[in-house]
Amino acid sequence: MIKILFVCHGNICRSPMAEFVMKDLVRQAGLAQQCRIASAATSAEELGNPVYPPARRKLAEHGIDCAGKTARRLTAGDYETYDLLIGMDRANLRNMRRLCGGDEEGKLHLLLEYAGRQDDVADPWYTRDFEATWRDVLDGCRGLLRQLLEDGALVR
């Protein structure tokens, strides 16, 4: 089983979008039983809050339900629990390294690496462009799924 944790600043927009997009992709591929997928925040600002309504609506437009998800904070123990911890931007990655005490096992990555890109997933909390975030998250998650299949971490 592959365990993936998506991480952003508050865990109310980008990382839950990635969590539920990835869950949907692996479900559609018949691989859900091989995966444990979750999301977390690097900050404590939104702890316990649900997915931000515009992010929830964007997921719903694509038939994806995120009901019941509330923000939680990344812990050092998550580094041991998860195989991959995937941040949305470079600031997330810096905070992930700090909260996890480094990255000795090379588990920390940026989502858009999996789409062959070096840029960040822009935070729609600030940009208000949930469509652009949707496209970036979908591209990154599709690339991640391809990589996991190529690496043999998931088997059809």
Describe it for me?
- The chain is of the alpha/beta class and about 160 residues long.
- Helix content is about 45%, strand content about 15%.
- It contains six helices and four strands, in the order E-H-E-H-H-E-H-E-H-H.
- It has helices at about 15-30, 55-60, 75-80, 90-100, 125, 130-150; strands at about 1-10, 35-40, 85, 110.
- Strands 2-1-3-4 form a four-stranded parallel beta sheet, with helices on both faces.
- Helix 1 (about 15-30) crosses helix 6.
- It is globular.
Main traits of this protein?
single chain; 156 residues; alpha/beta; 6 helices; 43% helix; globular
Please outline the helices and strands:
Blueprint: E1 2-8, H1 14-28, E2 35-41, H2 53-61, H3 76-81, E3 84-87, H4 90-100, E4 108-110, H5 124-127, H6 130-151
Parallel strand pairs: 1-2, 1-3, 3-4
Helix pairs in contact: 1-6
List SSEs in N-to-C order: EHEHHEHEHH
The strand count comes to: 4
Q: Supply the number of helical segments.
A: 6
Radius of gyration: 14 Å
- Biggest sheet descriptor: 4 strands, parallel
Shape, per Cα inertia axes: globular
- Average pLDDT figure: 97
Q: Assess the beta-strand content as a share of residues.
A: 5-15%
Low-confidence stretches: none
Structural class call reads: alpha/beta
What is the CA-CA span between the terminal residues? Answer: 13 Å
Sheet with most strands: strand arrangement: 2-1-3-4
* Helical fraction: 40-55%
